[in-house]
Amino acid sequence: MENSVLTGIRRLIQPSEKEGAIAGVCKRCGTDLKLGAEFCHVCGRWVYGSNFLRIIRLTKVVVTETGLEPPVLVCLIVAALFSIVSIFAGIRITPTTLGEWQIIQLWRIEWLLGAIVILLFGLLLKKNG
To answer: Domain spans of the chain?
Structure first.
């Protein structure tokens, strides 16, 4: 373990032979990019693709780390969002009567029920094994 950590540190410290080499051209501004650059140093555009590709890569990492299938992970995220919305439902409305307060509570209940349904759906999608 120590040996692999030391090799990684050495790679970071020692300059590469190809440090000045050009890796490509920015698609937005046409600037020559240095080898290993993630972003264009002129316009700031991400070199390797769109944010959608980043999200897909992150999802693959999360799926492999957690062991959850993608549909189950999506259900978990949507249920978490529904729960957060239920907490903040009615934050912009100041209830002045009992009826308005009850309506806000009904909205919260609806969002929480949606979260429960999606969590149950995610559990049904999860493969046993």
So the answer is: 1-49, 68-125
